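Bit of a strange request maybe. I'm writing a small parser for structure token strings and I need a real example to test against, not something I typed by hand. Could someone generate the tokens for this chain?
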Amino acid sequence: MLNRREMFGATAVAAAGAGVAPAEAKTPTQDPAPQDPTPQTGKAFAALTESNPLDAKITAFNTVSPDVEASIRFYRDVIGMTLVDDTTLGRDISSAPGIGKAGRRMATLAMPSTGRAMVRVFEAPANAAPNRPRPTSGPNDPGLMVMEGGARDPAEAYHALASVGTPMISPPRYYWFRNIMWGRDIDVMSFAPFGPGGEQMFITCNIRGDRPDWQADGVFSGFSNAAITSLDQRPADAFYEQALGLVRTSQMECYQKNCNQLIGAPDDAYYLWGNIGSGVSIEIWEMKTNSGTMYPTSLDRTGLAMLTMRVNDLDKCKAMCKAAGIKPVGEGALPAPGKGEQKAIFLRGAVGELLEIVQA
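Reply from user aminoacidic:
Good idea to test on real output. This should exercise your parser:
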């Protein structure tokens, strides 16, 4: 009988006789660097003319309020919008997430003088939770964050809102960007108020000496732009490109304390932001932070709940979604004044944002 030492020796001899070397530790090898010039590929920003093939555009910001009358007064009497519809939803009108049963009140307001997006205010269900809980949520938490509008003067706009007790993160903050992608400098003052339903807004005021003449009838111009935050912009960019053909057209970085104080971020926060598509008015932000909480939006929770976007070919949009494996989460357009019966699908974005996509 062989002992363990003898067994090991016999095994090694047998392996050598069979032409098999004993196992040895191997040093990882690396392919040598190319010696000749080698073509490389990357991804550039899209040309404006090629960035929005479905002519997508935000047409409505959908908010949910526990006090519809207070929301109507805010948007009509303070912001200067016109109440164009105040109705109750019919039975089986839509399968949008959170739309609920028939009889729910919905008010629609518009800014006729500027043609900006409508604001639709839905009556909140009893004891509805918020879409983005405050003060625990902030820009580090991915999801649909704000609806953005303009004003002719920062002090005048701030006073108009402060005088009626509007909650705000801070007084107006100044910030400046030299933007070669837009062909103009951004030289503005902004602040972030909250509507009666808890929806967060940006009010931005151009303070450049060569700014264009103010076109609105009053202090405010209405709302047209949405900001969506993420911890990684790539899935968000991919969703909008696959579902709507929207391609990123700009990118900027922000590490300004004033901007962070405006949005309620830590003073040392750092983030990227830029637009997808041209004329659609959606910004995707990437917050440089290790963690956050995603807050998917729904029409049965208070605050900013959904964006409505029109496209020039809904069937093509559906086909693009199907090809990408993006499944609609509902269908059946919600009422829009002057539009009659419309076709629509509802989509869920990469960071939980709810979208109503309607045929133009």
